[in-house]
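Researcher: Go.
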Amino acid sequence: MNNLFKEMNDISRPLANRLTPEIIDDFFGQKKIMGKNGVLRLLIEQDKVTSSIFYGPAGSGKTALAMIIAHRTKSDIQKLNAVVAKVEDLRNALFKAEQNLRNGKKTILFIDEIHRFNKLQQDGLLPAVEEGTITLIGTTTHNPFYSLIPPLRSRVLLFEFEKLDHSALEQILIRAEQKESISITKEAREYLLKFANGDARRMLNLLETVLLLEKKGEVELENIEKVIKEQHLVYDRDEDFHFDAISAFIKSIRGSDPDAALYWLALMLEGGEDPLYIARRLVILASEDIGLSDPLSLPIAQAAYDTVERIGMPEARITLAHVSIYLSLQPKSNSSYLAIDKAQKYVKTHEQIRVPAHLRSSSPGGEYKYPHDYKFHFVPQEYLGKNVQFYSPGSLGDEKELKKRLEFLKKLKQQGEE
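Model: Structure:
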């Protein structure tokens, strides 16, 4: 009877849930962190996982990997979903962890959708993480630099998950065929891979719907097209079109097309997207894609974020439209983005440069020249000790004036060195 109940229970579970891997060999994708010598893979295999946050798009394997950890570890597992967890649930989990610690046993506290915890709840995790009472494993589709408080971020490792590539998705389909005793035609497989857009759960949900309607073990393209045509709204959930829509929105603004940007903005708002999420992305875009060509774009985008936060919907839609149109029509420059990338790459690949003696705040040596004491408030002197260039100015908007200024300063420096 118990085996029959287990079989019935397995059948009632969604396909994506039934295919959740229990061992590392059944996990596909995320080669950067889970490849042969990936940091996270090594930590899991040695059962030495430290408090971590897995963040990235839906269906990329965050929860699946957390479940693998749960199956491999010798620690006690406490699971919470931040969407429904109450303060009492968190308190009970931490109490259990304290009991385990007294008995010499470790505890992993797994929190799905951890971005749903408010500041107070996140604060409540800090002592347990800091003291080692728990090993925290949190998963989120949101950027932890916005959704998690700084003290919590500083106490955990951050592992970014990327959208699954076709190779990983195809391996998941092969596993589904083997485990569910089904066959998928070549045309149907190609459609599923394309439809997934890097989201394994999205792909498996469509596959399961086809199997439920057709009630046969072979999946053909015409069956999939029929499901999509008749039931496409089933897949318009929070995290399914979320990343596609925001990507199209940002790329429309970057491409200086305000009408396309307004369409994607309207789609997201009508779909129930968090307006603050949209506002945050506009702040990022203002620096990444417009930057120095229009220095006003960043404060305007930041003002929009503050306004949206204060007034909320439905009025916030006007502010978002206002700023989207403004940013769309500004000259574009990614010089700041490229400059910091070059600088960080240089820091990672070169020997660290010592701070020149005349620039140090502690035990200064040499003679520092105060620029304001000189003509044009500029005096040639070494600030790095290396001849490197990270910033290459653009020639659009306000940045063309910065380019002239930079060239003028270079001439002054050359004259001073001659």
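Model: Residues 1-9, 231-238 have pLDDT under 50 and may be disordered.
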